[in-house]
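Input (Heat shock protein HslJ):
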Amino acid sequence: MYLQRFLMTSVVAATGFFISACATGPDAPIASGSYQCGQLDVRIASAGDGDLLGVDYQGNRLLLKPKVSASGALYVAPGDDETSFWSKGERATFTVKGQAYPECLQAGALEMPFEATGNEPFWDARVEGEELLFKRPYESGEPEKVALETMVANRNGREFRGDLDGQELTLKVARQLCEDTMSGSQFPAQVRLELNGEVFQGCGGDPERLFRGAEWVVEDLAGVGIIDRSRMTIEFFDENRLAGQASCNRYGGQYELTGEGVSFDYMYVTKMACAPALMNQENRFLEFMAKVKRASIGRHGELVLTTTTGEKITAFQSTESKGNP
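Output:
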C-alpha cells in the first residue's frame, strides 16, 4: 500500500566503510544520475535530442530546457521559471511551482555547512568546504580552525583528515540514521571523530532532511487503524510550513523543530462537512496534532509523532503520484 523504506543507506562494517570511488567532481557536466532532496528521490537524464533535461520524482516527469547561469547548470520549465533544476557537482536545487525542496545531494554527499556534535565528553564540529571549526572535548574555549583534506568520498559518506597542533584528526561521516544519546533527537548522519588515537562518537546533519520532501500518509492513529479509503497526510515544507489532508478537510500551519522536540502552531482547517465517522476521525487527528511534542523515524522508515500524553500518529511515505503541480 505504502512504501516502507529505510531513510539512509546502511553502512558496512567500519573496517570496510570508506572504500568506493570518489563522487562526481565539482566541474563535471550535468548527466544522468540521482539525488536525494531530503526524503524526495530525484532522477535526471538527458531527454529529447539531448537539449532537454528529464526530471523524474514522485511518479512525475518534468522536461526542462537549459537556461544561462553564472555558475553550474540550470534548467527551467518552458514558460515557468519557478520550476527549475540547478546543479553543480554533487549538489543541486529543485523547485516546483515556487516550492523549494531541501538541498539535493548525490549519495554520500554532505550539506554545507555540515554540523556535528557529541556527548560525554561534549564536542562539536562544523565542516565548510575544506575547513573545520572544532571545539575540543573536555575544553570550553573558542573553536579552533583545522584545514581538512578529503581522504574518501563515496556513496556511504565522507572521511576527512587534518592536523590540530601536531595531533592527527580524522572525521568520518556515515549517511545512517543517528540518535543523540542525551536528547533522543535524530539526525541523518553518524559521525566518528578520532583525535590523537582517542575516539568520540556523535551525530550530524540537518534533522529536517529526515522529514521534508515526502508526503507522509497516516496508517495508525493512537493504536487504531484509519477508516477504509479515508486519507490523512502530513507534509513538511520550506519556511517551516506544514500542510496536509485531515480526512475530510485540508489543514495547514507552522512547525518548529528543536533539540527538545517538535511543535505545530498557527493551525487552520477548511470547513467542508463530511460523514460523521470521517468528521470524528478528523477531529481526533487534529486534536493529537495540536499536542505533538516529538517526531522520530522508526525502524521501517515510518514517521512517528508522539503527543504530550503519549498517543502516537504513525505514517509512511506515499508511493502514489501526486501529479505535476
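Residues 49 and 72 are 21 Å apart (CA to CA).
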